[in-house]
């Protein structure tokens, strides 16, 4: 089904795993994302891409300490706006929680 200026329905495929120990949790995921916009869409430099993510959470004395990271890699695509960093996304996070 086409929408608007050539936009189309797409698929995203995701796979995630979690190891749950007594006080440690390890998580990992990978996904493949298809771009909904056509190659020649002006100003929309989206493309198919992969994301790899990981995380860990440690529980101790009522506290939860977590860290995670995510890396997105996009396929090459031509655009009116060129940048050496186009097509990459890195996200890092940390968390601290307490349960009472």
UniProtKB/TrEMBL annotation:
State where the protein is found.
Cell outer membrane
This entry's Gene Ontology molecular function terms read: long-chain fatty acid transporting porin activity
**Annotated GO CC locations:** cell outer membrane
Give yes or no: UniProt keyword Amino-acid biosynthesis: no
Q: What is this protein called?
A: Outer membrane transport protein P1
Q: Which UniProt keywords apply?
A: Cell outer membrane, Membrane, Signal, Transmembrane, Transmembrane beta strand
Membrane spanning residue stretches: none
Question: Membrane topology for this entry?
Answer: Multi-pass membrane protein
> Where does it mainly reside?
membrane
Q: Which family does it belong to?
A: Belongs to the OmpP1/FadL family.
